[in-house]
Amino acid sequence: MTYLETAKLWSDKLAKNDPLYIELSGFMADKNENELEDRFYKELAFGTAGLRGKCGVGTNRMNRFTVGRATQGIADYINAAYAAKDKNITAEKSVVIAHDPRYYSREFSMLAACILAANGIKSYIFPDLRPTPELAFMVRYLGTVSGINITASHNPQAYNGYKAYWQDGCQVSSDVADGMTECINAVDYFDGIHISKDPAVDFRTAGNWDFIKKLTESYIASGEVTVLDEKYDRLYLDKIESIAIHSGDDLNLNIPIVYTPLNGAGSIPFMQMMKERGFTDCQVVPEQKDPDPEFTTVGYPNPEDPKAFRLAEELGHKTGAELLMATDPDSDRFAIELLDKNGNYIPLNGNQTGYILVNYILDGHRSAGTLPENGAMVRSIVTSTMSSKIADSYGIKMYESLTGFKNICGLIPFIEEKNEKYLFGYEESVGYSACADIRDKDGISAGMLVSEAAAYYSKMGLTLFEVLDSLYRKYGYYAEDEPNIILEGSEGAARINRMMEHIRNNPITKVAGYPVMRCLNYNSGTVADINNPDNIIPATNAFRYFLDDGSDSPDTWFAIRPSGTEPKIKFYFYTRQESREKALLVNENIKNAVLEILKAVE
Q1: Fold: same for 42-228 and 478-599
Q2: I want to staple 193 with a disulfide (CB 3.0 to 4.6 A). Which of 202, 203, 402, 530 is the partner?
């Protein structure tokens, strides 16, 4: 079908009083083909990151039909697995569901619970929004076969999303995602979704949110949906606090700190955790304390973006805070800014925060006498290799994985099977996982450990800014840069594909005067972890180039890959030099040369 034919089908099928029909009718009456094409030229792809898109009418939008279809497909996949008595499934036939503060998040979560109940699958829901990592923890704690989280993470307010988890507490693996996708694609948007056990209830006309709320209440009354009370929040916080390394007199608990949840789900658990750890001067940004689906005070609620720290910086200057921390709306991403010697707040990228965390976890455990001999950490293939050098200096193994915490935390069973102890996993996009029982990135536990590190080094008369500088002096001055090219719509997606094909068919041999020593094409599925040959990296559409920068032990490289969740092609540039200034210059030259090659591809 063409996008116009698909739009016409939706217009014919939707109830005339449906807000989605009214929205669609406006575009059709105005003959707004650009809008119609963007909404109907493709379906939201259900991959290993689930669904993500703008809210509104269309197959390429988040709405009750795309969410309902995904949930029906997942229900069909689960029921088929249990009917076949899949030996790999050890959990009960149930699903735990959470959501963030965005528009329709609560409604979509209730919709998912109703569809699961109608298909004979028990579900657990929360009374209100909760952090993504709490959902990941609950999958394993409750022993459910799956988890669903309604969230668009750090995306702008127009977006929402749908993440699926499996019984191991990780986001679904590629194999499970492929199976779910097959079931989802078999579901008709209008006639294949079951929301009630009463066959007379038509999903097309049962989209009124008041109806879904009442239906959810009836499933709660029947025991098919269970609401999780506060004791489950307590279990999550207890798990986070159990990974503390130092406490009490080892820490300066009076260190001034500012935290912002960016109007998301982090405020209550984060501040409760800080209070229980004994921090006496941690203040939350008041304008960003409470949930706000408009994200009025921040606009783009991504803690990677230094502009998200504007209000935190204002409060920090008033309170003398040397550490500013932020989590994104679903509290899985985490970023910091540090006060430098001139009284300015300096944003750290995800790699730099990772250096601090890797070093503190290892240094802290060694000073506490708890550093295991068989410890292991994980970083993604596009994350700086400086952390591997830090880990190696402590005798700790650093594994590589594909991007995403389904891959990073997915290595935990592999590590444990080798009788090694998982200590930490992270990637450059401000995601950190420090607990083997919380198998997703977790901004709450990352915040606890960064605060603990700041308080630990403060006892020694050091700031985290000074600690980071000492790491550069010890391991080399690294520069990190992660630009991207945003290309939206069908034409943008096609151009991204052409860019990747150009690289594949025209191998790069020299960049900015530096010869290529080695290229890793991860598309083959046979590439091994560069430090651990028994760890084979699964196939993915990515390249990694290692350059000869003329030094005795070169550590200059870059990677290219398309985003799996956003309309962009992503780049990662790294180099180690004898000074930070030279590292920044070399990295900038390499970046410009590579971007020039790719931007020339039309």
Answers
A1: no
A2: 203
Pairing mode of beta strands 334-339, 323-327:
antiparallel
Residue 48 — very low, low, confident or very high, per pLDDT cuts 50/70/90? low
How is residue 177 written in tokens? 């995602």
Would you put residue 244 in left (φ > 0), alpha (ψ -120 to 50) or beta?
A: beta
Distance between CA atoms of residues 370 and 390, nearest Å: 17
User: Quick one: pLDDT band at residue 49, thresholds 50, 70, 90?
Assistant: confident
Question: Could you tell me the two tokens for 443?
Answer: 């901004």
Position of tokens 């000073």?
367
Question: Cβ distance 557 to 591 under 8 Å?
Answer: no
Residue with tokens 């960064």: 450
Q: In CATH, what number does 478-599 get? A: 3.30.310.50
Report the alpha-carbon distance of residue 450 to residue 201 in Å, rounded.
51
Query: For residue 62, what is the DSSP state?
Result: B
Q: List the alpha helices (DSSP H) in 223-349.
A: 230-241, 267-277, 310-319
- Please tell me the predicted confidence (pLDDT) of residue 144: 98
Name the DSSP letter for residue 47.
B
Tens of pLDDT, residues 584-601: 999 999 999 999 999 999
- DSSP three-state, residue 374: coil
Taking a C-beta distance cutoff of 8 angstroms, is the pair 289, 266 a contact?
no
Q: What is the DSSP letter of 381?
A: T
CATH class of 244-471: alpha beta
Count Cα neighbours of 329 within 13 Å in the Cβ-side half-sphere.
33
| Cβ neighbours for 506, distance < 8 A, ≥ 6 positions apart | none
Q: What does the domain layout of the chain look like in residue ranges? A: 1-39, 42-228, 244-471, 478-599
Helices (H), 443-579: 443-458, 464-475, 489-505
Q: What is the dihedral of CA 501, 532, 421, 447, to 10 degrees?
A: -40
Coil, strand or helix: which one is 156?
Answer: coil
pLDDT digits (tens, 9 = 90+) for 156-210: 999 999 999 999 999 999 899 999 999 999 999 999 999 999 988 999 887 688 9
> Would you state the pLDDT for residue 385?
97
pLDDT value of residue 207 = 67
Per-chain mean pLDDT for the chain = 96
CATH code for the structural domain at 42-228: 3.40.120.10
pLDDT of 284: 98
Q: What is the three-class DSSP state of 30?
A: coil
Amino acid at 111: L
Does residue 459 carry a pLDDT above 70? yes
State the pLDDT at residue 205: 82
Q: How far apart are CA 189 and CA 6, in angstroms?
A: 12
Instruction: Find all residues with CB under 8 Å of 8, minimum gap 6, and list them.
Output: none
Of 140 and 488, more confident? 140
Provide CB contacts within 8 A for 26, sequence distance 6+: 32
Say how far apart CA 200 and CA 193 lie, in whole Å.
Answer: 13
- Angstrom distance (rounded) from CA 401 to CA 407: 6
Within 13 Å, how many C-alpha atoms sit on residue 602's CB side? 0
